Amino acid sequence: PRLSVxxxxxxxxxxxxxxxxxxxxxxxxxxxxxxxxxxxxxxFYAQVARLLAPDGVMVVQSTSPLVxxxxxxxxxxxxxxxxxxxxxxxxxxxxxxxxxxxxxxxxPPVAPAHLPDGLRYLNAVSEPLMxxxxxxxxxxxxxxxxxxxxxxxxxxxGALLGPDMxxxxxxxxxxxxxxxxxxxxxxxxIAGGGVAGLAAGWRLAEAGFGDFALFELEDVAGxxxxxxxxxxxxxxxxxxxxxxxxxxxxxLIPLLRGLCMITGQDAPSAPxxxxxxxxxxxxxxxxxxx
Length: 290
Hints:
Structural class: alpha+beta
Helix content: 10-25%
Radius of gyration: 24 Å
Largest sheet: 4 strands, mixed
Strand order of the largest sheet: 1-2-4-3
Number of helices: 8
Order of helices and strands: HEHHEHEEHHEHEEEEHEEE
Mean pLDDT: 86
Strand content: 15-25%
């Protein structure tokens, strides 16, 4: 077969794997905790280098050189500590912003002699610009990410926000406290206050039906799109942003008008958006204040 899928722990898999590969693509989530940070360590990359063919090349998702330059260049430093030569590059990804990747090989990666015909983005002009790093993204001294220091995971303070496991297990095991107060019949119940549940409630209310209840497990509604705030600004907890709508988004535009996030119409297919809710980078996402 031309393709086989292995469901396994990547850290263990590379240690046991045999053979070599001409191309290796590594696209792990950002190293925001130690269980992910180990997949960016010199120990892991040394095993991947063992699997890379002598004239092969690998590429690693390396976070944003604009937002997190220290993390980006730590990946390159760590790959080089594993005995590989590197060449970083960056490009604008609409759903992420300015994002970076690192080419690595047993010999220094070089620019392609020519590009294939029919590409939709890459050409002779854009290709060299991807490898050019202006001063705010330029290489800087960084440590090697090792299992015993987890230098990449350390810059991310705080904890991951997730569902309350204890409450979920209490529901599963039937250990919730008995309800207090009189019973009340409810014609319609919405289970879950994530984006889908909140949108369902909004649509029902817009249609004139308000005799429903929405139940949410957590203390705050919003699900993966919930947010928080500090003394400076509101911020998203999750990665669910709202794409800027166009004219065909007939169900979304009335919702945004009701939230006062659309202030007018710049063009027939481009609504005018409330600027404080529009992300400056990238300019394709909206966030409702927490």
